[in-house]
Amino acid sequence: MDSVRAHDRSPSPPPPPARIRVGSAPDSWGVWFADDPDQLPWRRFLDEVSEAGYEWIELGPYGYLPTDPARLREETGSRGLKVSAGTVFTALHRGPAVREETWEQVSRVAALARDTGASHLVVIPAFWRDDKTAAALESPELTADQWRALTTGTERLAAEVRDAYGLSLVVHPHADTHIATEEHVERFLDATDPTLVSLCLDTGHYAYCGGDSVKLIKTYGERIGYLHLKQVDPVILADVVERGTPFGPAVRQGVMCEPPRGVPALEPVLTAAQGLGVDLFAIVEQDMYPCPPDKPLPIARRTRAFLRSCGA
Hints:
Layout: H1 2-8, E1 20-24, H2 42-51, E2 56-58, H3 69-77, E3 82-90, H4 99-115, E4 120-125, H5 144-165, E5 168-171, H6 182-190, E6 198-202, H7 203-208, H8 213-219, E7 224-229, E8 231-232, H9 234-243, H10 247-252, E9 256-257, H11 266-274, E10 280-284, H12 296-309
Parallel strand pairs: 1-2, 1-10, 2-3, 3-4, 4-5, 5-6, 6-7, 7-10
Antiparallel strand pairs: 8-9
């Protein structure tokens, strides 16, 4: 009898493949500010992101899209769109002095994200130099005390956002911030609680700062909670690095380019991400501020088609 049971016992089915939920963001339509005459009106952004074939969007800068949750749900739902995340900039390395200001900003964005069905809050560290003049506002490297303030402050914020709004906090390494290079990212991850703090891996920013996205996914896979997909033009990047160009002017120079024209190759990144066996958002963010109003939609269509060819 036992041998029959053993013979009849079939192997466990493999786990279902991870789902990569592809979306885009106002950034890919040249939107960096809540209100700017050089940017597309928000209705046109929503129309075009839907027309390009995306289902998910991020909120972008708070105030660009309607901040009334009911109205925003109506506007997105009528176009077949859903919200994946809101975004905030923080300066947590400055310690308790910025706590009240940080929470005021976070609470506004997190409430709107929650009330429109989002599941994540993307946190970007403050810039250490002026984005237009390149003047240093702070040292590009943190002291030991500032690192402790950053890591403990991020953990505390993540717990508060989870408890108050039910959102997962993901930290976005970003050019010209204190979490940018491979060394920065690894130090930050090693010093923070994995049950609280995950990473929004932006493939373009990580390559901009010399990092290898596939290596990071394979090494710290359990910490990857969200993806931003973009590429950098290696020729322009070399000039940016040589001249010490700040990020804003580098974007105007075209350092972030349409895939598959740049680096990193996105198919290996998506393959590595799918190998984690978890569902992930992968939001396209091609920094293009400012840009002509008719430029984003054709790029968005081609990018969506390219990502489908990569299995996403």
